[in-house]
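Handout, section 3.2

Students often ask what a structure token actually looks like in practice. Rather than define it abstractly, here is a full record for Sinapyl alcohol dehydrogenase 2. The first block is the sequence as you would receive it.
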Amino acid sequence: MEKTHENVKAFGWAARDTFGVLSPFNFSRRVTGEKDVQFKVVYCGICHTDLHQLKNEWSNSIYPMVPGHEVVGVVTEIGTKVEKFKIGDKVGVGGLVESCRKCENCDNDLENYCRDQIMTYNGVYTDGTTTYGGYSDIMVTNEHYVVHWPENLPMEAAPLLCAGITIYSPLKYFGLDKPGMHIGVVGLGGLGHMAVKFAKVFGTKVTVISTSLSKKDEAIEHLGADSFLVSRDPDQMQGAAGSLDGIIDTVSVIHPLLPLINLLKTRGKLAMLGAPEKPLELPVFPLLLGRKLVAGSFIGGMKETQEMVDFAAKHSITPDVEVVPMDYVNTAFERLLKSNVKYRFVLDIGNTLNKN
């Protein structure tokens, strides 16, 4: 049994209740165990999931809560049996810090689907203590759930550890990464803009699908999408019917699926990545008539996450980020609620997390 979190002082920002307002918070982490890596946090991304969790919108929040699951830093201490890392290495931690490591999913590098997975924050660790995330000065994590951060990849590209792998995994698994394919991307936010970037590097044709024409120039001129569809325009949607090999749906609010299913070719695949609060209506008949697939995907396993980070470094794929100081975090969440960011906030923990 690993030692409890009473030995190492840590400092971060936490929410104390469902209002979700963050403020300075002193807490403790476990000492560095024999297979643990301790690292100083340099950057941590702000994910829309953090907003859901802070306000207990999924009814599973544990307070006080230190969010953050897109964490990049530098190793300061390693356990006696650590094999993959050394002091001074750049590292990253995403959504997971533990899993059972003996089930079929874990045996197949799918720790992200382990029933006993432990999330980086708002979880309960094996010693009974609450897990705290990356809005803090240090992290202590078992080396299995830590990835090497490539030297040529900017550390502020931390959202790759959630947004990046959430996109990369379904594109690869559902075979939507083949040159010449035509892929649709629904929503042009933190996930959507990464979908465009990865899909273009894979060599596919990309159509962005949005409720508003206002994002067309951004999608095509800045991100390199090939075309743009306004989902509320029946003529545009009808004109594109049966044209897409696959669709990556990143939207987290209630929206109709039938118009998207109609865009798919026979045997087309609709991958759902957003998590709306209420169930969506799924019309079955158009699935039957085209052998179409509606599926879901959730982050990625550790092997695939390392693969994604290495791929991003090789092809210079980085999220568009706005780096902000720690004391700006509550304002950042207010803006995130209004979708007022292009496209991800990243907290400059290393330079701005001050105890005073």
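Discussion prompt for tutorial groups: The longest strand covers residues 36-46. How would you have guessed this from the sequence alone?
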